[in-house]
Amino acid sequence: MLSGLSRSTRTIRIMLGFLVPVAYLSALYLYSLLPKFLKEPFSLGFAPLTFPLAVGVTATQKYTVYLDLVESKWVGLVTQIFFIQLIIATLVIGYVVYKTLEMLIYSLGETNTEAF
Known about the structure:
Elements: H1 2-39, H2 47-69, H3 75-114
Helix pairs in contact: 1-2, 2-3
């Protein structure tokens, strides 16, 4: 039983050793594209940007908990990365929600004036 447990722990560490750097590289790529996207006029096409940001924050939070459980020396750094991701995701998601609501209110106002 214990050998199976250590084998699965080893497998988890190998998988995380591959997936975590890939996830952080993709997040960095997305962050590098954000200024370019935000210079463009707002459209509802920005909404899909929010999903990878939210998933990245959630994954980093779970990874931080895992690192804390295994008493890794990296937990402090990953916790800082988590808070940076959380701030960026909150700002971008808040911006997209605000602009979407603004578009909705504007379009509802146009619809009401056309009725008269």
